[in-house]
Amino acid sequence: MARVVLVINGPNLNLLGAREPAQYGNVTLGQIERDLTQSAAALGLRVQFAQSNHEGSLIDRVHAARTDGTDFILINAGGLTHTSVALRDALAAVAIPFVEVHISNVYRRERFRHRSLLSDLAVGSIVGLGTVGYGLALQFAATYAPPAG
Q: What superfamily would CATH give domain 28-143?
């Protein structure tokens, strides 16, 4: 059975392609999802997608991942990265390994974006490589094996 990777996108990421193209580029979320679906098939993975502008919906989806066969999570929590203790707690509670992805280089932006409430729980973070970061995270998920012990 193929490993299942859940790709979670937070607030405002549904506007990719139209939202601040100088910062986020012209690729839409739909294009990212199509590319990841094709890449996942080539890697022997299955992908599922979730996007919401509502913190509680994202938390509910993370909770569902605990029992729905999800093996790995890729998450771009958007602005919730810097503010949501509740989303952090959900990720900690389900204990599914995840990679944090950010399209823009948050360290070249406003100071409040320099702090992630998720990164110390993440297996790794991909920051500032544009939408290519999603594909790199998926490649990593395909090879990830949890540490022994």
A: Dehydroquinase, class II (3.40.50.9100)
